[in-house]
Every structure is written in C-alpha cells, then in structure tokens.
Design a protein that fits this description.
Length: 502
C-alpha cells in the first residue's frame, strides 16, 4: 500500500489540470463583458503604450549645465550721476553667467560715502533718544547703520533726537524712484546654453541649434515661430510669465525659466528638442512691505589723499532662475512585458466583475449561481445515504432476499453457473480483459470480492474463487450466507456499472 501510494503521488506530478467554464447565455452580461474588454484594451493601447510609451525604459537622472549671457545697454541722465551709460558689467550680477543671475532695473544711489560720524535715521527705533544717556557708547544700533558714540543729536523743528553713530556717512535717505531707472532693460537679450546628459543611455545633447554661421544664431529670437532659438528678449519672458515689465522692474521679482527635455531615443537624436516655459516664482499677489526683490552693494575707491570712499547702490531688479529637468526613453522588453501582464490582469478583473453581476445582481442570479457552483459530495456521504435508503436490513439481507434487487426479479433456485473462458484472450500478462465469473466454492460462508473495474488488463490469475482481478482498484469484501444469490447479484452489478467479477 505504501509503495502504491508513493507511486501514485509521483505519477500525479505529471497530471495537467484545467478549468471548467460555464457559458451563460445572457446578452446583457455578455455585452457588459465585451465593453469592459474593449475599454481595457483601449486603455492599454492608447494610454499605456501610445501616450505613456509603456514599452520604453526611462532615465530621469538628468545631468545638466547652464551658461547664461545677457546683452544690452542703457543710457541715463540724472542730477546725482549725470549722463551715464550702463552695460552688462554694470547691471548683471554675478558676471560669470550661472543658472541664477540678476538684472538691475531700478536703483537708489548714495555717492561719496566715507567712514565718519553722523546722526542715525529717525525711522530707526533703537536710534531715537532724548538725552545722551540714551545712547550708550560702543553699542550697535539694532537694525541701524552704525555704532553709537554716546551723544544725542537734535535736528531743527524735531520733537525727538537721534543718537550719533560712527558709520558710512552720509546715510542712505532717498526713497525708491517712481519709475524704473533702466527702462531699456525690457529690450535686453538673454542667451541660455544648456548641456544635458542621460547616463543610462550615454546620450548627450545641447539646446543650441545647429546654425550654418554665427550671424544666423545671433539674429534669431525665441518666439511662437521659433521654438528652439536659445536667445530670449527679456520683456517677452516677463510677459510669458504673466507679468508686466514696468511693474516688476520697479520693485523687483523672481522669474523662473524651465527647460524640459523629453527625448524619445527610439527616434533620431535630432528629434530631441527642449521645451521652454516661464513663470513668476515670488508671490506677486501679496502687497506686503517686503514685496519685490532688492539688495545693496557698493563700489569702493580712494581720492588723491588716499581717503577711502564708496558709492552705495540699493538695487531693484529681476532674478532669473533657470531650471532643467527631463527624461529619456528607449525600447526595452522588460517594461513591455510588465505592462502587457498588467493588461491581462485587468482583463481578469473585468471577468470577475461580470461574475459578481451575474450571480448577485441580476434577477436570475439563483439559477446562474447554481450552475456556476456545483456541490460534490464525498464517497462516505454517498455510502451513508445508500444505507439510509433501506433501513432495517443488513447488507447480506439486502443482497440475498426480496425482489427488486437492482431492478432484477427474484430468482427461483440457483442461477446457472457461468464458466470463465480462458482462451487466448484470458492468458496472464497478454493484455486481455479479466474474465467475468469463476465457479464459486460450495462452502456456506464465502467471502466474495468485488470492485468497479475500468476494463484494465489482468496482471495475474485469480487466486481465490470469487475474487475480482483489477489492477487499479481496491476490492471490497462482502460476506454472504448463500453464495448463489450474491454471485448473480455481483455479475449483474458488474454489467450495470462497468465492473468485472471473478
């Protein structure tokens, strides 16, 4: 038994199991299923593969370098500075041209400052005093311009005094101009060179167009008719960012220039182009006192006597931040298979949804549920039911007495014996079907062996009269008091259910 069980287990490893399908003739559910299939297929083809290019391997680790150049001149004529020409060295900070640069558009100039003593501004709270004791010597003025000397100075027609300080005097007192100082800055040009590289695919590219000569490159301007020219007019950039140049030039602001690279490396390298977009990054809707963008810087010099002077400049202007991002894609079998597998899984989800509709939502759900889920009872339950059908009779009594035994009439006397034919078809080991019946013994109590047979060839001769020879089933022992009746019964039972009896 142990060897037979192990052998059967080993042979079962090579069995193939498949599913059993139930075809429901319901047009509504069938139409729903086809619609779900069409929707999933359209999503897979159009969105996943055509739009999102799900068949490509993607590299987002972009390496980038940005070089900027601003060109343009402006002319001013003021009472403080007189006639003056402003070029790129005067209004661009820092001058080396990085991805972040600042262009001066408005300024407040305080010339000829030197280190000396003077009164602190009246609008500085820590510099206000009423007597000398309010100004502690050597104490720095909080949010002020210098260090207190210990004296309190009074101005004419003033109700309060100011502490004397040691600082760069005279102090900055002028207010911001009502109009931009460098109005011509609207026509300045910005040249942006961007070099990018995608390390996964070892692909490099630049945004500078392949021009036949330098003159054609210098004459181009970025616009609706020329999307790939790397030279931008400053006023146009401000307008594309949603602002007016005169407003942002007066108080200052921050403009973002975004360069987006989206390269399909399945195409030629010449098809990989940058896409530019512009936005204002500072909070332009806020009307706080700190709105805009400004800072101070100074230019130092000495007079003939060697005394150090400086010109203080409070600069308002536009800060440009150049930001680069992008991705590159190239065909790869791995993402293709993954996305196809996801599509197949979605198809299964559609079938699952239709199953729920079929067996839980429609009117005939009970009928379809019974067809889909088949209840199979075990062999032990079937045997118990057979015993319950004939209560009060033992197994021997049911088989040897009474009419209607498996639909057969009661026999009067013993049946005619059936002799086993053992011709050429009944020899051992020749692949023939087992003989039906051997003459049973005449002993009063005879164990009879019977089992259902598949018609398999016998592998050995019968050893006990009345024993079933079947190589693939286990015999069941039935004990009878009178042999003729069970022999007749088992012979007919074998004929009915496909068994063989010996």
């Amino acid at each position: 038994m142990g060897q037979a069980g192990c052998g059967g287990l080993c042979l079962s490893l090579f069995d193939y199991k498949t599913e059993k399908y139930v075809i429901a003739k319901n047009k509504k559910v069938g139409l729903l299923y086809r619609l779900l299939q069409a929707s999933i297929l359209a999503y897979l083809v159009v969105w996943v593969f055509l739009i999102k290019k799900g068949y490509q391997d993607v590299d987002t680790s972009l390496q980038s370098a940005v070089i900027t150049k601003v060109k343009g001149v402006a002319f001013t004529n003021t009472s403080d500075l007189g006639e003056r020409l402003w070029d790129v060295a005067d209004y661009v900070i820092p001058p080396q041209g990085e991805n972040v640069f600042f262009v001066v558009t408005n300024l407040i100039v305080t010339p000829n400052q030197r280190q000396n003593v003077c009164a602190e501004n009246e609008d500085i709270p820590d510099g206000v005093c009423s007597e000398d004791s309010d100004c502690h010597p050597g104490e720095a003025v909080t949010a002020g311009n210098g260090v207190k000397t210990g004296r309190c100075l009074w101005r004419d027609n003033s109700t309060r005094g100011s502490c004397e300080i040691f600082a760069w005097c005279p102090l900055e007192t002028r207010s911001r101009p009502a109009e931009p100082f460098l109005k011509e800055a609207e026509d300045f040009t910005i040249f942006i060179k961007n070099y990018i590289r995608f390390p996964k695919f070892n692909f490099s590219k630049s945004n500078v167009i392949d021009a036949k000569d330098r003159a054609s490159l210098k004459s181009c301007r970025f616009g609706p008719k020329n999307h790939y020219c790397p030279i931008f007019r400053m006023g146009s950039v401000i307008r594309w960012a949603g602002s007016h140049f005169q407003d942002i030039a007066l108080e200052g602001g921050v403009i973002g220039i975004n360069i987006e690279w989206n390269c399909d490396l399945d195409k030629a390298a010449s098809e990989c182009h940058p896409h530019y977009s512009f936005s204002r990054l500072d909070n332009k809707l806020s009307k706080s006192v700190s709105s805009g963008y400004n800072f101070r810087f100074a230019k130092y010099y000495r007079d003939a006597a060697g005394a150090e002077f400086r010109t203080l400049i409070k600069a308002y202007g536009i800060r440009f931040d150049v930001m680069v991002n992008g991705k590159a894609g190239k065909f790869s079998i791995i993402p293709t298979v993954i996305n196809l597998g996801s599509g197949v899984a979605l198809m299964g989800a559609g079938a699952f949804f239709c199953d729920l509709v079929l067996i839980y939502l429609i009117k005939k759900r009970e009928f379809y549920r019974d067809k889909k889920y088949e209840e199979v009872r075990g062999l032990e339950d079937s045997s118990q039911d057979a015993e319950d059908e004939a209560p009060g009779l033992g197994l021997s009594e049911q088989l040897t007495s009474g009419p209607g035994l498996l639909g057969m009439p009661e026999q009067q006397g013993p049946p005619e014996p059936l002799e086993a034919e053992r011709g050429s078809s009944g020899q051992k080991g020749n692949g023939s079907v087992c003989p039906q019946i051997l003459q049973p013994s005449s002993q009063p109590s005879l164990p009879v062996f019977f089992s259902l047979s598949t018609g398999a060839p016998c592998s050995e001769e019968p050893r006990i009269p009345g024993q079933l020879l079947d190589c693939h089933t286990l015999p069941v022992s039935l004990f009878f008091a009178q042999p003729p009746a069970p022999i007749f019964f088992l012979h007919n039972l074998g004929a009915r259910v496909g068994g063989s009896f010996i």
